[in-house]
């Protein structure tokens, strides 16, 4: 059962209290095995002009830097000034020019000085997330081969078969906690981008550092390059990946198997997040590895929890008790890894709430793909979508393959949720039809990324579907001015609100697996986070400014779920017994205490 009491408990926190949250600072000394110029060229240790004179002496840096020592705060201000002047100078230029220029300046800092980079990212997450994450990261992936200056992360290709166990030891970090892995086959809604998809693990891991406080020396973005079926890339002379069609079947799986074994051998406790795999491999690898390794699929499982939290929020926004969730008619558009993940978790929740009545739960939900409404009459029905296909007798007179417009007109759904990757399919007619929804506050979730692939934009949603809707999108949009001082609030329904907490909580619990119970606890925590006052205004998710706070809470919920399932073996000095005896507040404090925060720490040289 969903623990409804938690929703009431959430009301005691105000947004200002959340903003006051601050992470613990003061890390100890940091051991380096290099000296002199090698340190200046290592972004993990480099402090630029910030090295104190004594440290310059100790590390053989004296004379390699201009004499004046600049404080961290001055360095920070200098960077932000140059960022703001770039913003000013590029005003009015096309989106792609401006955002790529912003990405370049951030990327240069990332390559040079990670402490300063991550501090700037954490302090300006609202401005910078759209650059290092969706939508700009999509543009960066599309242009990756041209933008490439330095490698980041690791690249395992089909040509490395048999070598991965030794290759994994080429990574310079001693310990890795968090890996984000892609094969580049479905990058956001942009399709197969081959090796260029490495931008996604990099962006996701930046969010891990910023939101979850994972130490950047312990993260590893990985590209599994098994070829690409993108003809344009195969013909591009600058393309940096393998110029061959994608491996399929056993050949493909043997590459992923070898990588997973290699990772597990070197870092048995590392957590692997699978990201942006095309649907067939997303499901197959999840099934194959989730009981053997500590892994999850973000698109299937992370997205599901975020969507479910939003759907529960829409019930509260209607002024209804949560138990009314069982009466919501939900239309999901897109039957891929994300859409099916969402539907699966939603049906589980509906079913629990209606006394384990899965049939009643399924009756509330409708699924469409590129060929329209999916029913049991569908020829060549995808086995993954089959459990959600409508029995034609329960389809309210709708036919197999009915169009989106027909479905919306007939059903008058409470929720219209897009995960199709197709920009603009919630067109004017569809949105107007949502005015007839049976809900006083219909929900429109346009969750596909990046911005161009969103099913509709925020302004159109409020304009055509009316001012009463609650709106969420996968990529950020500005709030909409509805006139007369009213604001149409735009929520960002993105898995970034869960995956950092899922990874962090799993790490700190010491669990070897990520179970449905841990994922459900993460989703419940997010769902209960918003106050009734916020929800009434149509605000379903926290502001990205408080992502570190929500991540600590989600992380703690995941730890506690692992403890409940007797999977928590502890982390570092904290053993399973201590975890068992922690109260909820103590667990949050434990998680918060373990979040890394960027400050310069004294460097100590060791041979
Ligand atoms: N907001 C978030 O947190 C997340 C958003 N996404 C976004 O969701 C989108 C889909 O991702 P996946 O499910 O992994 O992709 P996928 O390729 O596995 O599935 C896409 C689905 O959309 C369907 N589709 C295509 N054209 C359609 C149309 N005209 N009408 C209805 N359905 C149509 C396809 O038949 C397929 O079932 C991507 O744009 C991705 O960026 C994915 C994960 C998280
Ligand atoms: C957000 C995300 O994971 C996606 O669009 O694929
Ligand atoms: Mg993804």
TrEMBL record:
InterPro entries according to UniProt: Aminoacid_DH-like_N_sf, Malic_enzyme_CS, Malic_N_dom, Malic_N_dom_sf, Malic_NAD-bd, Malic_OxRdtase, NAD(P)-bd_dom_sf
PROSITE patterns according to UniProt: MALIC_ENZYMES (PS00331)
Cofactor(s), by name: Mg(2+); Mn(2+)
Active site: 133 (proton donor), 204 (proton acceptor)
Signal peptide positions on this chain: none
GO BP terms in the entry: malate metabolic process
Domain Malic enzyme N-terminal: 110-290
Alphabetical UniProt keywords: Metal-binding, Mitochondrion, NAD, Oxidoreductase, Transit peptide
Molecular function GO labels: malate dehydrogenase (decarboxylating) (NAD+) activity; metal ion binding; NAD binding; protein homodimerization activity
Family, per entry: Belongs to the malic enzymes family.
Function (record text): Involved in the regulation of sugars and amino acids metabolisms during the night period.
Protein name, UniProt field: Malic enzyme
Organism, scientific name: Salix udensis
């Amino acid at each position: 059962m969903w623990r409804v009491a938690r929703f009431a408990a959430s009301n005691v926190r105000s947004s200002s209290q959340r903003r006051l949250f601050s992470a613990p600072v003061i890390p100890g000394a940091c051991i380096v095995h290099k000296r002199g110029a090698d340190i200046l060229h290592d972004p993990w240790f480099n402090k630029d002009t910030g090295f104190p004179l004594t440290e310059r002496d100790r590390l053989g840096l004296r004379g390699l830097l201009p004499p004046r020592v600049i404080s961290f705060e001055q360095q920070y201000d200098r960077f932000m000034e140059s960022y703001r002047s770039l913003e000013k100078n590029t005003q009015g230029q096309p989106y792609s020019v401006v955002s790529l220029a912003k990405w370049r300046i951030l990327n240069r800092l990332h390559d040079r000085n990670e402490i300063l980079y991550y501090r700037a990212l954490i302090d300006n997450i609202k401005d910078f997330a759209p650059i290092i994450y969706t939508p700009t990261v999509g543009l960066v992936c599309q242009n990756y081969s041209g933008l490439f200056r330095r490698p980041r992360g690791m690249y395992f290709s089909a040509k490395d078969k048999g070598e991965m166990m030794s290759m994994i030891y080429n990574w310079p970090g001693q310990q890795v906690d968090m890996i984000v892995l892609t094969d580049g086959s479905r990058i956001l809604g942009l399709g197969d981008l081959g090796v260029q998809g490495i931008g996604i693990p990099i962006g996701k891991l930046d969010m891990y550092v910023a939101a979850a406080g994972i130490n950047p020396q312990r993260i590893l973005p990985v590209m599994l390059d098994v070829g690409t079926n993108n003809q344009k890339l195969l013909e591009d002379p600058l393309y940096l990946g393998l110029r061959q069609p994608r491996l399929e079947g056993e050949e493909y799986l043997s590459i992923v198997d070898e990588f997973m074994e290699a990772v597990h051998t070197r870092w048995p406790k590392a957590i692997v997040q699978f990201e942006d795999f095309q649907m067939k491999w997303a499901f197959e690898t999840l099934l194959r590895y989730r009981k053997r390794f500590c892994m999850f699929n973000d698109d299937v499982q992370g997205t599901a929890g975020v969507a479910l939290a939003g759907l529960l929020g829409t019930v509260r926004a209607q002024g209804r008790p949560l138990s009314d969730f069982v009466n919501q008619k939900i239309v999901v558009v897109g039957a891929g890894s994300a859409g099916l993940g969402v539907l699966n978790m939603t049906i589980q929740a509906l079913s629990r709430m209606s006394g384990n009545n899965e049939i009643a739960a399924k009756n509330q939900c409708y699924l469409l793909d590129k060929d329209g409404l999916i029913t049991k009459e569908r020829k060549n029905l995808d086995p993954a979508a089959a459990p959600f296909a409508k029995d034609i007798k329960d389809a309210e007179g709708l036919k197999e393959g009915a169009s989106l417009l027909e479905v919306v007109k007939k059903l008058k759904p409470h929720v219209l949720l897009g995960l199709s990757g197709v920009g603009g399919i919630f067109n004017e007619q569809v949105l107007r039809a949502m005015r007839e929804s049976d809900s006083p506050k219909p929900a429109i979730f346009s969750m596909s990324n990046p911005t161009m692939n969103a099913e509709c934009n925020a302004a159109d949603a409020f304009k055509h579907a009316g001012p009463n809707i609650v709106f969420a999108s996968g990529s950020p949009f500005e709030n909409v001015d509805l006139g007369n001082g009213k604001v149409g609030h735009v929520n960002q329904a993105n898995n970034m609100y869960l995956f950092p907490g899922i990874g962090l909580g799993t790490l700190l619990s010491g669990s070897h697996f990520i179970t449905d119970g841990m994922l459900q606890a993460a989703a419940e925590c997010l769902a209960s986070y918003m106050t009734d006052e916020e929800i009434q205004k149509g605000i379903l998710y926290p502001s990205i400014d408080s992502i570190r706070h929500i991540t600590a809470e989600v992380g703690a919920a995941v730890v506690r779920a692992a403890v409940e399932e007797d999977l928590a073996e502890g982390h570092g000095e904290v053993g399973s017994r201590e975890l068992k005896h922690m109260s909820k507040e103590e667990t949050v404090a434990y998680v918060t205490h373990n979040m890394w925060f960027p400050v310069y720490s004294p460097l100590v040289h060791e041979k």
